[in-house]
Amino acid sequence: MKRILPLLAVLLWTGSADIQAQTRFLDDRVTLSGFGTLGLLHSNQEHADFVRDIGQPKGAEQGWSSRIDTRLGLQADIRFDEKLTGVIQGMSQYHSSGDFSPELMLAFLRYSPDPGFQFRVGRLGWDVDLVSDSRYVGYAYPWIRPPVDHFGVLQLTYIDGADVTFKRPMGSDLIWARFFTGRTNSRAYLSDELYANFDADHIYGGHLNYETGAWRFRAGYTRIESDVDYGGTLADQVAQIPGFNTRRFFNAATGFEQLEVYSVGAIYNPGPLQLQAIWNRDILIRNEIWVDSAFVSAAWRFNDLSPYTVLSAVRTHDDRDDPLNSNIEQRTWGVGLRYDVANDLAIKTQVDRIHTHSPGLLWRNTDDSWNGGWSTMVSLGLDFIF
């Protein structure tokens, strides 16, 4: 944490200066903006370390940790003309490389000749459900972090490809659809001793949206076909067995080569009240295994204060004996409070009670004897945009 705070302060200060200079110099054709989170989490769990998502190799150990939630992002929006624009976004967060090295999260061109049509090409966010495209911008949602039981098992951060969006008004309502295709590389940690490298060379899908009054609805589908390699000490041990095909063994155990994701969600936001409910089903086609994850959330804004509550759950449906101890079954109850100090700054606090039946992918450094139980997480966060 001592190294992160000065870095964030310097980047925030210099970034603000660059915004003013670039905007004046390029006659408002380039707009620089940013977002970030300073996060602290206290865990009372002595048998395992808590992670935000399956891409994090290490988690928050017992006591205080700033590792899993702290991040800083910078974005440039470029306007070439009224129809052609571009976006470039970089972000520093704790991710699969085991450090805070910056990543290129977005880099695309957008062509929109009229309000009813949009085409984008480049590096795009994977907006599989209603909240996933903003899950790294803490200021955009009420919670400290998106519910881990749901968003923690999402496999992709972005895709390199293209998408097309069609919008059509229906009276005062709006119906729109997006279709996408592309590829990406990612890494998911199954345990401390095993990780999977995804070379997802065939990704395609889309979602249908309907907006009426304060309601937003979405139904989505994604299919991911990958070449998967495995690493870590467990993979190295298996590779030492003469005549044994490591990749074939782990692919048979996981079924990661082909994955389908179904998503249904709704948001109701009439003003002070905000209700959200989202459900996903990830189907591992080869082994007929699926993972259900969902959450419901309610927040109410009183002037600058927004109390909220959230309930989430995740469960692996697998009739086998779980050969890699990767199956998950967990529920989380959370309550929190957001205080908007200014138009671009929010302070949050949240308490989560987690009931773990099977730790699976969402915990690190687990004791061999730990099969789950109750954990309490107390989180503090400072979210900002600029």
Automatic annotation (TrEMBL):
Keywords per UniProt: Signal
GO molecular function, one term: porin activity
GO cellular component assignments: membrane
SUPFAM superfamilies: Porins
Cell membrane is among the record's keywords: no
InterPro entries: Gram_neg_porin_domain (IPR033900), Porin_dom_sf (IPR023614)
Signal peptide region: 1-21
Pfam families, per the entry: Porin_4
Domain Porin: 14-356
Name of this protein: Porin
